[in-house]
Amino acid sequence: MATADTEMAHRNYCVVFIIFALAIVQAVGYDTELYETKPCDSNACFDKLHGSLGDCSCNVDTIDYFNNVKIYPRIQSLVRKDYFRFYKVNLKKECPFWADDSRCAMRYCHIKTCSKESVPGYENGYENEEHIDESPATKYSKESQSNCDSDTDHDPDLGYLNMTISAASQHEIAKWKAHDDALENFCECDDKDVDAEYVDLLLNPERFTGYKGPSANRIWRSIYQENCFRPKANPYVSFPFVLTSDLSNMCLEKRVFYRAVSGMHTSINIHLCSKYLLSEKTAAFATSPEGEWGPNIEEFQNRFDPSQTFGEGPNWLKNLYFVYLLEMRALAKAGPYLEKEEYYTGNAVEDEETRDAISNMLGVIYSFPDHFNESSMFNGGSQAADLKVEFREHFRNISRIMDCVGCDKCKLWGKLQTQGLGTALKILFSNKWNSPESDLHLTKLPVRHKSHERLQRTEIVALFNAFARLSDSIRQLEYFRIMLSTQKEDSQKPSLFGSFQDTK
Asked: Which domain of life is it from (predicted)?
């Protein structure tokens, strides 16, 4: 009898255990399905990197050729010019979302700032461009002068106009301007902050500094989970990204937002893999006192191989091409405006070369047949207008999150590329840029002396440098493709020992 009772109790326990197990499987089934991966393949990253990108009419192969042959050499040469190499940024801002508890102490995380006096053209005051309404050269030219004494009808008292404005009124007007700018800007510009400093980008190249771990992961987790649009609640914590299969459940605007952020993230990861710290200076005969930097194939596979990314790696690479198209479209849309900039540094010869280089590259961009089409977005009355506001506020939050990065060099390039993308979004979706062609009748207006400027100098510097980073990432992908193919071919060749064994 006791034996029967024991067997019955054992069966009951088994039934309860099975039901409990089924409940757990059902609860985490989605996550379990996500983690099923295939073994790593050296070419898997590129097997699906072909054909249409989706959400636009272009394909990967067309962009590869266009960028690597036509754009890459032009944009890389352009951003080495003095106007684009000096970026003003505030790296001392406190993180507005959480306590910054893990500052990077590695020497590779530090940056080299430069004094404002060493920046070409600073001594001539181009920094205060928005406060000057006309060029001094025009103001004091002979054609601009008139002799009022020769006019017999001239009465100075009748022509008097009181243009004084009190300090309080000037302060209020400044607040109005800040409010109006906030309605159009997708990023918080901190170049006017007291703590903002100039950085020579050529002396502080973007590369892997060793900054990683929970602090770095928290940055991107916060961006994806809290500031990217999602089709549904995230069922898994360890994988914060939106699955490509779920993107179809989102509207075009939300899909574009996610893919743009994902593309920027992909680009940054490629930079870190292509400029990886291979060895540090340990002896006097080291290759360089700064260490040896170069491509790390294993790191690239860890970040993008389908078996390491739950199948999403190739889709992330496609998002790089997507954001490249988006930023290139912004350059084309703002092209008539950008071609009128003076790009002033005080060096007349280099300034002219910069303007010629800009005109040449924009001409190539105009010729591209499949630009991103922003006109299909935010159409639909008040609901679309509300979504546009939400779209902008989400991206402004991402720009604030960049102040939480614990590595100064990572923060520098994160803020620059975020501001570059934000400037592109401003051009594409701000009402000020709906008809840039209307400016075509204007003569060249120096950026220092425009009364109706649309972009600040820092925004222009960020826009071109961010696009240069995307262009470089696509070029680096070609190098990784070649290295992985060579690696696979070498692994398939029989070794000398193997050949000898086979002949026995």
From this structure: Eukaryota
